[in-house]
């Protein structure tokens, strides 16, 4: 299978994070769409391709290499200078419903390892994302 583009790999990471607990909620799906529509990294990505890219990810997950294969493809497809952004996108999806399940935590842990994001950067991304999702009630 050919290496995905950086955009596709970023979407794959958001999809595997959302699907890790076998329950892709509407809130998570909406956040993936919002990230694709609003983050500068996706400025030149055709939003109409989002569903087909998510389906490609599902096919990759069912392939022999499974989750490890998706993570390895992502590591190779996403330029190193964007690994932090990739983690931020995945964490954004995981935290949107204000509930982190063990499966999501495990995927994020694997993602940190594959992308070699340092602990201080991880802490900053996670803290900023959690702060952004807080509500008054």
Essential attributes:
137 residues; mainly alpha; globular
Shape: globular
Structural class: mainly alpha
Number of strands: 0
Query: How do the SSEs run, as a string of H and E?
Result: HHHHHHH
What separation lies between the terminal Cα atoms?
A: 47 Å
**What is the helix fraction of residues, given as a range?**
55-70%
Highest CATH level, the class = Mainly Alpha
Give a quick rundown of the structure.
The termini are far apart. This protein has helices spanning 6-19, 26-38, 50-62, 66-77, 83-95, 102-115, 119-133.
Polypeptide structure, described:
This protein has helices at 6-19, 26-38, 50-62, 66-77, 83-95, 102-115, 119-133. It has 137 residues and is mostly helical. The termini are far apart. It has a single domain (6-132), classed as TerB-like (Orthogonal Bundle), CATH 1.10.3680. It is 69% helix and 0% strand.
Present the secondary structure layout.
Layout: H1 6-19, H2 26-38, H3 50-62, H4 66-77, H5 83-95, H6 102-115, H7 119-133
Helix pairs in contact: 1-2, 1-3, 1-4, 1-5, 1-6, 2-5, 3-4, 4-6, 5-6, 5-7
